Amino acid sequence: MIQQQILQLIFWSGVILCLPAFYRFSYVGSAFLWRKIFPTRRIEIHFTEYGRKKTNKVTITLDRKNSKRVAQLIKDAERE
Known about the structure:
Strand content: 15-25%
Shape: elongated
Largest sheet: 2 strands, antiparallel
């Protein structure tokens, strides 16, 4: 009886420790898959000045050929 409880304690401790790593892995994998299936064609960049409450917005619309390149650039920027 006590051996089974110790085994269950070890098992659930391992599950609790592995969940954050598994969550992050699935989040990154799904984001990468989403960008490959639906490439980005419209990008909005927001510039905010810290001294003021002014926000500038730049919108870039790309061709279908260049949208995969932007997805690659976003992926490279996230790595750094």
